[in-house]
Amino acid sequence: MKVKSAFLLVCVCLSINISTFAAEIPNEVKIKAVDNPNDFHFVVMGDRTGKEEKGVFEQIINKVNIMSPAFVVSVGDNIQGYTLDANSANKMWDEYDALISKLNVPFLKTAGNHDISNEMMADVYQKRFGSPYYFSVYKNVLFLFVTTDDPYLAALDGKSSKELDKEKQKLKQMAVTQGITPQSLMQLKKYEEKHRNVNGGRISDAQFEYFNQVLADYNNVRWTFVIMHKPLWKESAPPENWVKIENLLKNRPYTVFAGHEHINAYSSRNNRDYIIMSGSGAGGVPKIVAGVYQHILWVTMNDKEPAIANLMADGILEKNYIISRNPDPNKMDVKKMIQEYEGTAKK
Question: What is the DSSP secondary-structure string of 95-155?
Fold first, then answer.
């Protein structure tokens, strides 16, 4: 009798619920539009070359196409460079252009030291692409593409080159044998400082005068982005013309992106964001070091300030790419999976 009563009670409850839902006619749920016609997204890509990890740049291009930004900017080192043969340089650029042609949106490059590593390569660059420094304006946002090897860097003397290489090899060995220790981090810092100062950047007077005029002409833009290769502000004695450009920027909202060091880093300077990219294909730094990975930045420019998201390249997936937490499907513990599922279902 008790079982029958319980059954009737369940039926009554179900009938109440059914009649309640049946009486309510679903309405359209309005979505409040938050889109602003002045908002846009763009991608910042790190170095492609310098101990390039083959295939990474191509994969990132495909993933950026899925994301469909308004455009892409790079912080330089687009080709391997460091050749004295014009045919070889042009072949590198042909290969690069073929890769970029697969991108569905505009691509704005910065010239890195690998791109204009000597007088011949600087000449090839200019014949193919025009001036290595330039500006662009999009939806009243100013982009300055600064060349930090102007004039180009002459080849290092043998002694300096050997010293840097020796220290780099020592750093790699410490990373393998010791991992991250106070000693290895100190060694890395010393190497970075020496490399930065030996390979110091330069900005010509002509380039400074050019950007001086650009900034005067566009003094009422919403925001200014500075895209450069070498992080000149980290040098013990930054180039005078870079210091002058920073002084011109200080009374306006701006953000700086750089590359070259292959280690992602962030600093706040003049109350503004200064970001150094790791690689978008480039390697050469032990992956055990913090900030070493393949990535891009996804920048959303809204009516107030940019919102910047740091995206790992291997975290951007196509719609049909499903991640398995089990590295070997043939070794799956089916019994354990069922137990886990049943345990979850009971909660």
Answer: HHHHHHTT-SS-EE----TTTS-SHHHHHHHHHHHS-SSEEEEETTEEEEE--SBSSPPPP
In degrees and rounded to multiples of 5, residue 140 shows phi and psi of 60, 30
Q: Tell whether pTM > 0.90.
A: no
Q: What is the pLDDT of residue 174?
A: 73
Task: Decide if 262 contacts 280 (C-beta within 8 A).
Answer: no
Residue in the block written with tokens 């070259």: 260
* Structural contact between residues 294 and 53, judged by C-beta atoms closer than 8 angstroms: yes
Q: Say whether pLDDT at 344 is over 80.
A: no
Instruction: Give the separation between CA 83 and CA 343, rounded to whole angstroms.
Output: 63
Give the Cα-Cα-Cα angle 226, 230, 231 (nearest 5 degrees): 70
Neighbours of 323 (CB within 10 A): 7
Q: What is the DSSP letter of 320?
A: T
User: What is residue 218's predicted lDDT score, i.e. its pLDDT?
Assistant: 98
Rounded to whole angstroms, how far apart are CA atoms 127 and 150? 16
Give the phi and the psi of residue 3 in degrees, each rounded to 5.
-65, -40
pLDDT digits (tens, 9 = 90+) for 35-49: 899 999 999 999 999
Of 240, 249, 241, 298, the closest CA to residue 271 belongs to 249
